[in-house]
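Hello Y.,

Per our agreement to keep a running log of every chain we model this quarter, I'm adding this entry. I've kept the format consistent with earlier entries: sequence first, then predicted structure.
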Amino acid sequence: MKKHTLSAAVRDVVGRKVKNLKKQGLLPATIYGKKIKSVSVSVKIDELLKVHKETGESGLVELTLQNEVRPVLIHNVQINPVTSVPIHVEFYQVDLKEKVQANVPVEFTGEPAAVTNKIGVLLTIHDEVEVEALPADLPEKIEFDVTFLAEVHAEVKVKDLHVPKGVTVLTEAELVLAKIGSL
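Predicted structure for the entry above:
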């Protein structure tokens, strides 16, 4: 698994004055977690977007703050609904020896036989599942090959997923993730 790093700086600016941070290319953020005091920080917007694109909300990030490396998950990125630009981010600091729960995206690969034979279309009903694992074992995504789906109404359920060792799927096993719909 690729190592993801990000740098942060403690910020004293709060309230409406955070607009000044954005002019400097910085994004207000908060670090919180069990047994730690919340810290207000700022991160570079472009670096955060790059890391978030690669890790999503389940990839472990090493956040450097005042020469201290903290293992965090990007827990919540608030987006401006008009401009689609991030306005705030929350980092959840984790204990590497304690299991955490996270939603992990499911990525369907391959082209179903039903689509190739033009008898149906692949309908994605759910695109993520909730899992529990140690932070270092959390997968960034779960891939599933759907080429075997050859008939209308064929389904992929949560129980069909193959997850890495040490990862427990918490989502209901009978939940349908994708199926073939008729044309």
